[in-house]
Amino acid sequence: MTGFCEENDVRKALQDKDLSETDVYGPTGTEFVTAAIEKVSDWLQRQGNRYWYDSGGGTDLVPDSPATVSDVRLDIPSSPHSQRDQLFHDSDTRYPVTKAGPYARVTLPHGYVQSLTGLEVRGRGGGVEDWVAANDKTEGRGEDYYVARKGQDSYGRTHLYVRARSIGPRYDFNGILTAEFDYGLDATDESWQDVRRGVAQLAAAELVIEDDVVTSIPDNGQLVGVDTQRQQLVDDGRDALEPYLTPPGGG
User: Fold this and answer.
1) Can you name the residues that pair with 94 across neighbouring β-strands?
2) Does residue 1 lie within any of the structural domains?
3) Count H helices, E strands: the chain?
């Protein structure tokens, strides 16, 4: 089971809207809560290509290790014009476009990428070389390639930097890279309470009975129905998760 919040987070989200469990749960409440958390978490992961976990453990639904993805095909931006330190060949040749000194920059389609476990590079003759396993290729700044997050305010956007000289000129840069990597944000390194709260609110909304039952009469005398409380949970949850709903690479 994988979820980006715990059952108690959902109960708190309901309590914050003055909703009691007896109003919204069936006879097997825990099953419904768990199913709602998993449904929202799976949707969020697929929607935004991001993942969250807590390596500190002590959780029931929140995972304790990052996710892994393989066979990620990547293009390197290219131009018919040679860049810095690149010799011109002929009119049909294209060159890696450099964005960070001598490096071409590729935005990875998943957020919070930690490390590459594989980086297959198509050679000029059509063969493939795994740079992670290759003895003559090195990962790190100043080396052949490296991975770096844009910053804490980038919601996990991560770039792969490949030294242009290590790739060289080609006729086609489409799908030249095939990557495998771990990705995810660890709660022990950086808090992701906004995600946890948003998932809990949407999961709580999944559990609310949609009818016209009046749950409270506030001091202003206006009746507040369960359907209104449910919409508030949806709105609050969407607001919290909105920055994470688009994949880092677009799309």
Assistant:
1) 170
2) no
3) 6, 14
Q: Is the CB of residue 162 less than 8 Å from the CB of residue 104?
A: yes
Distance CA(204)–CA(43), nearest Å, equals 15
DSSP tag of 107: E
Question: Residue 77 and residue 177: Cα distance in Å, rounded?
Answer: 12
pLDDT in tens, 98-123: 987 899 999 999 999 988 999 999 99
Question: Where among 144, 162, 183 does a domain terminate?
Answer: 183
Same domain for 167 and 110: yes
d(CA 74, CA 84): 22
Whether residue 79 is found in the same domain as residue 143: yes
Residues 158 and 209 in one domain: no
Each residue's pLDDT tens digit, 158-185: 999 999 999 988 888 999 999 999 999 9
Last residue of a domain, one of 149, 183, 217: 183
Is 165 strand, coil or helix?
helix
User: What is the rounded average pLDDT of the residues 71-86?
Assistant: 81
What does residue 146 show for φ and ψ, rounded to 5 degrees?
-165, 160
d(CA 70, CA 79): 28
Q: State the DSSP code for 115.
A: E
d(C-alpha 102, C-alpha 117), whole Å? 23
